[in-house]
């Protein structure tokens, strides 16, 4: 297996590549590069090696439907190709097309979402989402005066990346510890978060703590917005599959020698926010309610629907 696949999988697993969109683009790009440099010309061997490469990438972040969709977008024509060259070129072409469409989707979401923000709004964001950051920075680019509270987002503290991005864009941003969300929410008008996965019922799978942000927003009557490319919609959930919530090593939150004997540590990466706490899902297709997700999934899948069963 070429280093590009193993290296990309390691970078995703070790959180050097973070964010659902970035992960998806990295997976599609790695497969395209792997196909471009493939050292053979046997079609069946190429199919088998692409399947192995895909499995390695997918195992690096099992919860991320974005990665799954990126990988499958890149490899979708391999099985139907009539020759090795046709199969190889399809991966190169489809991988590049996925990256381009993903980047354009973030730009479109920014323009649509910025319309939800009013001059003088106080906003909150959680973790580090390029789509949510794009919405906020676009509003500021349009001349709107906003203030932003960004959560630290333990244990990996992705909030540090967020405040750097927002500060560089000239945004008035304040970093808060995760447990201060409810205290600060009384000042907030709107919340913008990203998405790791959105299920067919409109529920959100995102960075741990997102559901608590949504609960606090509901209590304070602050608008809760999810910024998500539609490739983060999980077609597998149409057919009864549940979303796997990844657990990570306890070393991320406790130092060696601190653990008393018999004590356990629970370190989930994501949590589930029920659809009833979500006001809007902002996508490249427009703003929709959680209840609209099912119909969008079905329309987008079309005749490809059997491939997800």
Automatic annotation (TrEMBL):
The keyword Ribosomal protein does not apply. GO terms for molecular function: ribose 1,5-bisphosphate isomerase activity; S-methyl-5-thioribose-1-phosphate isomerase activity. Its EC number is 5.3.1.29. The active site is at residues 127, 196. Keywords: Carbohydrate metabolism, Isomerase. It holds the Pfam family IF-2B. InterPro entries: IF-2B-related, IF_2B-like_C, Initiation_fac_2B_a/b/d, M1Pi_N, NagB/RpiA_transferase-like, R15Pi. It catalyses: alpha-D-ribose 1,5-bisphosphate = D-ribulose 1,5-bisphosphate. The keyword Protease does not apply. It comes from the Archaea. Substrate binds at residues 18-21, 61, 206-207, 232. Reaction proceeds via a cis-phosphoenolate intermediate. NCBIfam families: eIF-2B_rel (TIGR00524), ribulose_e2b2 (TIGR00511). HAMAP family: R15P_isomerase (MF_02230). Belongs to the eIF-2B alpha/beta/delta subunits family. R15P isomerase subfamily. This is Ribose 1,5-bisphosphate isomerase.
């Amino acid at each position: 297996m070429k280093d590009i696949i193993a290296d990309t999988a390691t970078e995703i697993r070790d959180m050097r590549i973070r964010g659902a969109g970035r992960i998806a683009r990295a997976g599609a790009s790695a497969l395209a590069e792997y196909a471009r440099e493939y050292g053979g010309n046997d079609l069946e061997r190429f199919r088998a090696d692409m399947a192995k490469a895909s499995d390695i990438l997918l195992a690096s972040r099992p919860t991320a439907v974005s990665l799954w969709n990126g990988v499958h977008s890149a490899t979708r024509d391999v099985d139907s190709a009539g020759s090795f060259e046709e199969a190889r070129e399809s991966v190169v072409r489809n991988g590049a097309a996925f990256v381009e469409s993903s980047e354009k989707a973030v730009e479109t979401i920014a323009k649509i979402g910025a319309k939800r923000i009013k001059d003088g709004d106080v906003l909150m964001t959680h973790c580090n989402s390029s789509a949510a950051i794009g919405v906020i920075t676009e509003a500021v680019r349009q001349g709107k005066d906003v203030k932003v509270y960004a959560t630290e987002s333990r244990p990996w503290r992705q909030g540090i990346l967020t405040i750097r991005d927002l500060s560089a864009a000239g945004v008035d941003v304040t970093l808060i510890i995760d447990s201060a969300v409810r205290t600060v929410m009384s000042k907030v008008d709107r919340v913008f978060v990203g998405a790791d996965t959105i299920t067919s019922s409109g529920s959100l799978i995102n960075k741990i703590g997102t559901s608590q942000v949504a609960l606090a927003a509901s209590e304070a009557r602050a608008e809760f917005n999810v910024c998500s490319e539609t490739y983060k919609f999980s077609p597998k959930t149409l057919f009864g599959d549940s979303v796997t919530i990844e657990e990570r090593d306890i070393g991320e939150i406790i130092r060696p020698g601190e653990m008393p004997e018999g004590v356990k540590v629970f370190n989930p990466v994501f949590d589930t926010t029920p659809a009833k706490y979500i006001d809007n899902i902002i996508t490249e297709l427009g703003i929709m309610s959680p209840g609209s997700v099912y119909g969008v999934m079905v329309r987008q899948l079309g005749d490809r629907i059997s491939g997800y069963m």
